Amino acid sequence: MIYSTIVEKNESALQQIIDALDLFEKERFVAGIQAGRFSKYEIAQTLEMVQLYQKRMNVEGRALAHFSETFIRQFATDNNQCFKNAERYFKKIRSTLCALKKVFQKTCQTSRKQLPAGKENPSVFERSALSNDVYQLDMYGLESYDEMVQQLYNDLDTLLTTATSILNACQRVIEQEDFVRENTDILRSIYEESCDNLMCSVKEFSNFMNTTKTLPENELIKRRSKASSKDEFLKKEYHNVNKSEFKTYVWLVAVKQGQSDGLTSEETYLWHQNHDKVEAVRRVISMFHCLQDIKGQEGKLNSQVIVEFIKWCDVEKNKEKRLYRYFCDNYHGDLKPLVWSTICKERKELREISRFTDQELIDSFERRMNQLTAEELPIFGEASNF
Fold it and tell me: Which label site among 9, 54, 137, 282 has the fewest CB atoms less than 10 Å from its CB?
């Protein structure tokens, strides 16, 4: 009879293996050695195999831990589409499963019995002496065996403990994933955080807008429109959509919402969380020439005023260069704009030498605006040129 090493890639099989590992103890190990009728050569070979798989399992365990740290907080990943929960993890722990199959297979008692027609071969995890309910106790115990056998037990104990830890980690993340899917508050938080992270990607969003003349169709947007509620949509699509499709979805939703609010794609990108800020920024740029002390050296703008303005605009730091380009494109005063490297240098000096906080720079710029007279303030209609 040939024992089966096939493991179904589902939660019940994961639990079956964990249960089998929990039964490991000295007496079962000795019974396994007897069942396999190991020679000294086979003991030595098995010891080498266990030590080799220990190293592989250590690497795999660390990789799984790193993966699980970020996986739950991502709304979309490329590790889940079209896979059931457990199947994803079985693909990530191949070395662990391979090692366990070999160890359990080696400790199954040889049987010449023929199975009845139609009956499936029993699993090595059921019939191995390491996990079988019925096994032969040795009168003298492990201490009666030579040093190599005892070393094999110690190394095998470490290997199976590591494997148990890895499988339990898989199980915990599966449980966390199920919990998140049923908890709308957490799910909304993960969704919004994932959207914000994508909208902060300067290069990728730029490439998307540069290559998109007309807004493309997106299946995820269609599914969102058909869902009875946002919560139903989030629950269904969490860890069921890949990153590429989700990126396009997030950017398209943002651009369409921006267009409905009268924003350009650039403005949508810069202020995706605060569309109301755009009108204020437009007005400030249109009246920039009226602000006091904006003239710097050689007919150029004052670098400190520009830094204050940038901080007042309230965008993420990685978007500030893009914001300054937006300012330069829309500033029509007589003073010459500065190069970005000069702005960077001024920003660094204000922070590190003058010890200005962002809020202090914002307050300073607001004081500049408050000094304008009513006659100098432009009416809202002047911003319509943008």
Answer: 137
Global confidence as pTM: 0.69
**Run of H or E including 278:** helix 276-286
The pLDDT of 172-179, averaged and rounded, is 87
- Quick one: residue 268, left, alpha or beta (phi over 0 = left, psi -120 to 50 = alpha)? alpha
Q: How far apart are CA 8 and CA 89, in angstroms?
A: 12
Mutual angle of helices 26-36 and 147-182, in 10-degree steps: 110
Using pLDDT thresholds of 50, 70 and 90, give the confidence band for residue 145: confident
Give residue 151's identity as a one-letter amino acid code.
Answer: Q
Determine the Cα–Cα distance for residues 34 and 109; give it in Å rounded to an integer.
Answer: 8
With tokens 């959207």, the residue in question is 195
CA distance 231 to 256: 21
In angstroms, the first-to-last Cα distance of the chain is 80
Question: CB 377: neighbour CB atoms within 10 A?
Answer: 12
Cβ atoms < 10 Å from Cβ of 153: 21
